[in-house]
Amino acid sequence: MEVITPFVLVVVRFVIVIGILILVHELGHFFVARWTGVGVERFSIGFGPVLLRWRGTETEYVLSAIPMGGYVKMVGEENPLEGGGGPVYDSAKAFALKPLWARFLIVFAGPAMNLVLAAVIFAVVLATLGRAVWPATVGKVADNSPAASAGLRTGDTIVGVNGRPVAYWEDLDRALARSAGRPLELRVRHDGAESTMTVTPRLRSVPDPVFREPRESWDIGAGPQLLPMITSVGPRSPAERAGLKPGDVVLMVAGQPLYTHEDLLEAIRTRPGQSFELTIERDGKQLTMTVTPEPVKERLPTGEEVTVGKIQAGLAPKAVRFEPYGPLTAAWQGTVKTWEMTVLTAKGLWKLVSRQIDLSNIGGPIQIATETTRQANDGLVSVAVFVALISVNLGVLNLLPIPMLDGGHLLFFVIEAVLGRPLSLRKREVAQQVGFVLLMVIMFFALYNDLTRLNAFKFFR
Fold it and tell me: CATH assignment of 133-223, given 3.20.20.370, 2.30.42.10, 2.120.10.30, 2.60.120.430?
């Protein structure tokens, strides 16, 4: 029972997440089809054996057993003149007989609704929870950096830049971005006393957090103080065996002070199978406990396989505060965030196709289910953001110009607009067959990678 229950929870969470994404996608097709006067014969969530069926005035609504997709079957999807014989339906409701713009909108509406869903989720999160902000308290100061030369120390709080007040670390980041290397006058508070110092930013090349590509930015060699806090502890995990609990603030690793939760993550990753001491703060008291990260095989974006340490615990910066946005600002920022994720997803796909990223990074349903469970341990907000990210991915993937996907149909419509007539039914059928084979290959890669991550092939070695 202990094994079955977690497995059932994983399956239920996966079905709910995928079900929401599919429902929203198909509703996009459905509503725009009805709006443009196209009849809908069947609206299906899932494939395979029918579990539930309900008959409306015109449309049959179906819930099927395999939650890996869905479809909207419209009246007259193919032009009857191409296949021979006359129409057996109301031609005014036939999809194939509608203007090109209407057909384009109907197909485009599915992926578009996935992007709209992501924007709505981001907006709701930003309006209720808000954006994360960090106090302008200095954490680690790098040796021989502009900050060190100016006399900035760990624990200092920056209260002003060039005469302007500083409330959060992001205010300092914005001032650095605008500086273009010009000296900044900092107003600093230390032990209740304020002083002024001048620091000259330097231009550095740092890797971006996603693809690790170098990018240039102005900095002073100091970062915010963000002590890591345990937010969740996995059952029967190294973290649980060590005695860690949600709410614990980690102060030191092996006697070395921490400044950010990234410092702790790096310490854990680089010590697979090695025991070391953590100094934590719990209920105002300092405790020391020993943790042994579990060795886990992990593939880098380059395809290289490395062994890293994992303790199966959620981490977040303790010092983070959240500043809610107003409704209009939240809606705008949700749209901006969706656009950023869309660009990032498209960039990742291009890197996969051009082999800048190894194909082992492709994930499938097992990875989605595993990640959903991990996010669920961190709370509803984490799950919501994860659903938004997957929704963006689903929207972008469906826009790829591959037959069998919405993007393939949109490509046919573009060709039709250029030629002044649609491609022949035979050519579209051949393209669909090629697209089907391509999708099967992608699905095979995704499933193979999922099973590899779970070491499912170790029994055959």
Answer: 2.30.42.10
Q: What is the pLDDT of residues 398-442, one digit of tens each?
A: 898 888 888 988 998 999 899 888 887 787 778 777 777 777 777
Sequence ranges of the chain with CATH classification 2.30.42.10: 133-223, 228-317
The predicted pLDDT at position 372 comes to: 65
3-state SS track over the chain: CCCHHHHHHHHHHHHHHHHHHHHHHHHHHHHHHHHCCCCEEEEEEEEEEEEEEEECCCCEEEEEEEEEEEEEEECCCCCHHHHCCCCCCCHHHCCCCCCHHHHHHHHHHHHHHHHHHHHHHHHHHHHHCCEEECECEEEEECCCCHHHHHCCCCCCEEEEECCEECCEHHHHHHHHHHHCCCCEEEEEEECCEEEEEEECCEEEEEECCCCCCEEEEEECCEEECCCEEEEEECCCCHHHHHCCCCCCEEEEECCEECCCHHHHHHHHHCCCCCCEEEEEEECCEEEEEEECCEEEEEECCCCCEEEEEECCEEEEECCCEEECCCHHHHHHHHHHHHHHHHHHHHHHHHHHHCCCCCHHHCCCHHHHHHHHHHHHHCCHHHHHHHHHHHHHHHHHHHCCCCCCCHHHHHHHHHHHHHHCCCCCHHHHHHHHHHHHHHHHHHHHHHHHHHHHHCCCCHHHC
pLDDT at 460 over 50: no
* Positions marked catalytic: 26
Q: What is the pTM of this model?
A: 0.77
Please give the CATH number for the structural domain made up of 228-317: 2.30.42.10
